[in-house]
Amino acid sequence: MLASALALAACDRQGAAQAAAVDLPPLKSLAAFPVGTCVQAVQLDDPGFAALVAAQVSQLTAEWEMKMEYIVQDDGSFRFDAPDRIAAFARTHGLRFFGHTLVWYAQSPPAFERLDAGRIAFDGAYRNYIHAVVGRYRGQAVGWDVVNEAVAEDGEGWRDSLWSQRLGRLEHMTLAFQHAREADPEAVLFLNDYNLENLPKKRATFLKLAEALLKAGAPLGGLGTQTHVAADLKAGELAAALKDLASLGLPIHLSEMDVSLSRAEGLIRDPAKLAAGQARVYAEAAEAFSSLPAQQRFAFTHWGLRDKDSWLKREDAADTPLLFDDAGRPKSAAAAWAGGLR
Question: How many other C-beta atoms can be found within 10 angstroms of the C-beta atom of residue 135?
Answer without folding.
Answer: 14
